[in-house]
Amino acid sequence: MATLAAEKPAAAAHTPEAVVVRFAGDSGDGMQLTGGQFTLSTALAGNDLATFPDFPAEIRAPQGTLFGVSAFQINFGSTEIETAGDAPDVLVAMNPAALKVNLAALKPGGLIIADTGEFNKRNLEKAKYDVSPLDDGSLARWDVLAFDISALTVEAVKDFGLGNKDALRCKNMWTLGLALWMFDRDRQPLIDWLNGKFKSKPDLAAANIAALNAGHAYGETAELSGPLKQLHIPPVASAPGLYRTITGAEAVSLGLVAGAQLAGLPMFFGGYPITPASAILHHLARLKEFGVTTFQAEDEIAAICAAIGASYAGQLGVTSSSGPGIALKGEAMGLAIMTELPLVIVNSQRGGPSTGLPTKTEQSDLYQAVYGRNGDAPMPVIAARSPGDVFDCAIEACRIAVQYMTPVMLLTDGYIANAAEPWKVPDPKAYEPFPVTFLEEKNSGDTLLAYKRDAKGARPWIKPGTPGLMHRIGGIEKHVETGNIDYSPANHQAMTDARKDKIDGIAKTIPAQDVVLGDATGTLAVVGWGSTFGPIHQAVRRARKQGLSVSHVHVRNVWPLPANLGELLSGFDHVLVPEMNTGQFKTVLRDQLLIDARSLTKTSGQPFSIAELETAIATYFDATADNESGEVSPTPAQLPEEGSGYDDGSLKTGVKP
Amino acid sequence: MNDMTPIATTLKDWETDQEVRWCPGCGDYAILKAVQRTLPAIGADPKNTVFVSGIGCSSRFPYYIESYGFHTIHGRAPAFATGIKLANPDLDVWLVTGDGDGLSIGGNHLMHVLRRNLDVQILLFNNEIYGLTKGQASPTSRIGTPSPSTPLGSVDRPANPCAFALGAGARFVGRGFDVSKFLPEVLTAAHAHKGAAFVEIFQNCIVYNKDVFNDFAAPKGAEDRQLWLKDGEPMLFANGTKGIALDLETLSLKVVDVAEGDWQGAGVLVHNAKNRAIAHMLVEMPFGEFPMALGVLYDDPRPTFEAAVIAEKAKASEGKTADLAKLLAKGQTWTVDDKGGHPA
């Protein structure tokens, strides 16, 4: 990947395939909004892209502090983009703290755009700088474009009668204007968006547009001298069709709506506010015309219990949360397993344990999903790999839930929930419907057998309100056919087996495991699940370009595993499982397949970089490396530098620990 | 309650083939019979009736009623009932809970189902003890209750279920006890109330808290210790020789003597089930100094939760079609042509 800095000596000599830009500022600076709008403009320009929003847990952290820094990274280009990019080529730093937190990530020779208006004594102190880094030569490794964005913004909007505070709020649009110029983008869609957003406040719309135009104009002027260059990234060659950008939270909501339609059922969604899962509740609350009932419950437990109640009454019950909330729902999941009612549970995973890292990503709820309930309580688990993929995964979760009369866990994570990617809009007609039939009459002569199973092992779904089928169900062990209370030893054995066999049998209806990149046999299989798809895919691609015998295997059905997975992996000498946890899927693979799977783990709240994975892959082809020692541990380089930002528990100035 | 065509059934129609497994002599048997008597009387339809329960002795109830039944998890029955009613508002849902299930582990859900005003009948069997777990003190146990978990007597102050319900915003509060011949009347009124109807039923746990309600529930002297409230009728007890009046100085209730039937002269209150302020006083009347207030203490309906949800959904859907293809293609989109090109 070429850098912008590399462009400097010979500006238009060649165009890079992809560029990584990171916008960083105070959490009140509107960086997520700036990034979101830049993403849209990138998509409209026809580039492929991936984004990584990275923001603090505090809504408005104290201004100017290191832990209040909010960043949005976008990787876009004229080739396929699957990750948000490792190191940014361009860092837009709206204050000293934003510079300090993000500088270490910037590519050598990359470009820093800094607002000198914010590099005052107070802000430098808050960012723990003794001297302004803009003045002390410490940024010599990078190109620096430092100027007073604050003053330029205030100047640009002075005709609109805004107070100084409101005027400075337009800074993000000024910056966005400059970024649009840098990448030769059309301003019109953004102007339309601003006019729509500030419909009732035309002055604010005009001020923001003026700031946007001023930033854009500044680019043209500044190009004459200094490091700023305009770049045009050509569109990526994509399959023909209609596209839009989509986040994981949007995609899961749409997928659930589609799944309910394919099942022919109204959907009931029970939720409780939690980061990063709340967005699903917000989206679905606006889709009532699709037969969706949303219920914001008094707690996580009530949210799932109400969803189970709705399923019992004949709707498709859905609930969603993140790790801590999923933990609270555990007992109710057991009831759904015991009463064999369909239910979809979405877990947008975040860093744990306990409250952990609410706004950061992790894959550490896999054990919880697969094993985390009392008793032998098997439940299918599906994991989505990207924002667009969640749509299909949600449909699959609905299908399994209603066809097998079981709760299904759908795993996404904070990265997928918030990240955006271009999405080829699917045709709903391309999906095979799976209509539900409710039992309408007694199924064994004059008797109702509420637990009589079909060939798949599923019991009938019986709605209250159906004449003649009155019966009682509950969480106590039930007779293998009638469903009446039955504690007898042989019956509990039979029911435990039946519940397990039913879930194991799902492996028969899920697609056989394939290899997404590379040969079906070879030296190394890199096996991933969930949102590590992007970096693994790119790392394997690069390794294969170097001639290494590496394949990428991505598992969507985490439980039960695809029936042929063991056979497939036996065709490789080594199996490496990169995960954003301490090796949970590796343990599942070892247990289920008796293979010598090894881990590459990372729990920093950040996704894997491609480079980290490339390094890990390389060790398998390095004759001098000791591959027998066990786990591949994260290299020290992955750890954040001390004082590099985030909420690192720093004490108040002057307070001694 | 729902607007349903009355269905002709008998008590027998509401009995299941399951052997009832409460302890012999348990007050639950009497409550079961009272409910099975009430259901035919109100014209309930077995296919549209759902009994939802939590965990505990009381929560075994659904297994013994020939209707739809869902025995759920500890304390959460109100949440399941909410999902059931929102999914199918035509169902007639009865919620059966106990003092531990409803006020301890499930206190949060009970509060919210009452404040939302879901149209269900909530029967809280209060025996002031945990029965199924073998006799620990419960949140309604009186101070000093000895139990395996409180060998020196419980020290925590008990909750008052009816005061809790009113405080949570209940629009119907009734009270009865297991063997009372008036219990079906209270249940009938609860069923007739559209919205969350809360009924506290004192229930005699003959194993772990035997006869703890005898001071007012025992037949002998009952007339002196029970105040049966009837809307529009004076609050009289002790065969009409005593009544409840309002002390205007202290804004509290007091017991007054009624001479020769002149209750008006004695200032006895006429029960108005819509009077929320008096209802608060009735549920808080200290027993001993006062009789136990029983019957329909409060009944003043408000629009139900499910009606509001349905109305909101209808309004939000007005003039909109559920076109999934259109929904998927919403927002800012762009088209890639078959040459892989992008229009400007």
Helical stretch count of chain A? 21
Strand content of chain B: 15-25%
The mean pLDDT of chain B is 95
Note the overall shape of chain B.
globular
Structural class of chain A: alpha/beta
CATH structural class of the domain at 11-212 in chain B: Alpha Beta
Unreliable spans of chain B: none
- Spatial sequence of strands, sheet with the most strands of chain A: 9-8-10-11-13-12-18
- Number of helical stretches of at least 4 residues of chain B: 12
CATH topology of the domain at 11-212 in chain B: Rossmann fold
Largest sheet of chain B: 8 strands, mixed
Mean pLDDT figure of chain A: 90
Assembly context of the chains: heterodimer
Helix content class of chain A: 25-40%
Task: Give the biggest sheet of chain A.
Answer: 7 strands, mixed
Spans where pLDDT lies below 50 across 5 or more residues of chain A: 1-13, 634-645
Q: What's the overall geometry of chain A?
A: globular
Largest interface: A-B, 76 and 61 residues
The SS-based structural class of chain B is alpha/beta
Characterization of this structure:
The complex is a heterodimer of chains A (657) and B (344). Chain A is of the alpha/beta class and 657 residues long. Helices cover 34% and strands 18% of the residues of chain A. Chain A contains 21 helices and 20 strands. A 7-stranded mixed beta sheet of chain A has the order 9-8-10-11-13-12-18, with helices on both faces. In chain A, strands 2-3-1-4-5-6 form a 6-stranded mixed beta sheet, with helices on both faces. A 4-stranded parallel beta sheet of chain A has the order 17-16-19-20, sandwiched between helices. In chain A, strand 10 (316-321), helix 13 (323-339) and strand 11 form a beta-alpha-beta unit. In chain A, helix 10 (248-263) runs parallel beside helix 15 (387-404). The longest helix of chain A is centred in the N-terminal third of the chain and has 21 residues, at 202-222. Chain B is an alpha/beta fold and 344 residues long. Chain B has a domain at 11-212: Rossmann fold (3-Layer(aba) Sandwich). Chain B has helices at residues 27-41, 77-87, 99-105, 107-116, 161-167, 183-192, 214-217, 222-225, 263-266, 276-284, 305-317, 324-328, and strands spanning 49-53, 68-71, 92-98, 120-126, 172-177, 197-202, 226-229, 236-237, 242-247, 252-257, 292-299, 333-336. In chain B, helix 6 (183-192) links the parallel strand 5 (172-177) and strand 6 (197-202). The longest helix of chain B has 15 residues, at 27-41. Chain B is globular, with a radius of gyration of 24 Å. The model of chain B has no long low-confidence stretch (mean pLDDT 95). The chains are: A alpha/beta (657), B alpha/beta (344). The interface between A and B is large, with 76 and 61 residues. Strand 15 of chain A pairs parallel with strand 2 of chain B, so a sheet runs across the interface.
